[in-house]
Automatic annotation (TrEMBL):
This is Ubiquinone biosynthesis protein. InterPro entries: Coq4. GO terms for biological process: ubiquinone biosynthetic process. Pfam families: Coq4. It comes from the Bacteria. It comes from Cystobacter fuscus.
Length: 230
């Protein structure tokens, strides 16, 4: 039985229905960001076609085919954060572990069963969210989260990111928060989108093999330079 107030998606749902359910999911996620049902359902509503296209792109290259074949995991149960934090300061592993400690959060976990490559790509996108914070330098406050969504939209065309941006931006423009005015908010969102669009596609990168690589090296390789904001 469906839990009270938990959105559900009927079979062969229309675009209007999928958008409506996606909005309900966002309302739940505002108060329960770790809700696994709504997190997965939001992606299903908006990004199946995008993920299918990304799978095709990855299948065209040797590294991408290897990723799809091996399906590596960055879930919390696969990560030894204590070991990663013992790596030299400045390395991806050390800074990734410190990111979780400093922000008092835990790595991503999901109950999603991987039935195909599209499911894996959806999971991979969510798993790399925190790594992108480390590589791009975007903060974990409201502004930084929206910048990261804009970056992902520019880089991958993720519709969930566009929906989150629209939903959150309308709220921010009605009542600015986090000490960021309307014009600055829009400038930073636009800059993050352009940066993501100018950067190499990150989803197929084998982060698991680069824990000992300096963050600065990976950022230079995977991220276009951040625009200086006056």
């Amino acid at each position: 039985m469906t839990a009270p107030h938990t959105p559900s998606l009927p079979d062969n749902a229309s675009l209007f229905t999928r958008l409506s359910v996606a909005r309900q999911c966002l309302e739940v996620l505002k108060n329960d960001p770790a809700n696994p049902t709504c997190g997965q359902l939001l992606n299903i509503c908006l990004d199946l076609g995008v993920y299918a296209s990304l799978v095709q792109q990855l299948q065209s290259g040797e590294e991408g085919r290897r990723l799809l074949s091996e399906r590596p995991s960055l879930q919390g149960k696969e990560l030894d954060l204590a070991a990663l934090e013992r790596l030299p300061e400045g390395t991806l592993g050390h800074e990734f572990a410190r990111y979780f400690r400093d922000n008092k959060i835990s790595p991503f976990e999901t109950t999603l069963e991987l039935k195909n490559d599209i499911d894996f790509i959806g999971k991979r996108y969510r798993e790399t969210h925190d790594l992108l914070h480390v590589l791009t330098g975007y903060a974990t406050d409201v502004m930084g989260e929206m910048e990261l969504q804009a970056y992902a939209l520019g880089n991958l065309g993720i519709r969930t990111a566009a929906f989150i941006l629209l939903f959150s931006s309308l709220e921010h423009l009605r009542a600015p928060q986090s000490g960021v005015g309307r014009s600055e908010y829009l400038r930073r969102i636009q800059a993050a989108y352009r940066r993501g669009h100018a950067s190499p596609q990150f989803l197929g990168f084998p982060f698991e093999h680069h824990w000992e690589t300096p963050v600065a090296t990976l950022s230079a390789r995977l991220c276009a330079p951040a625009q200086r904001m006056n």
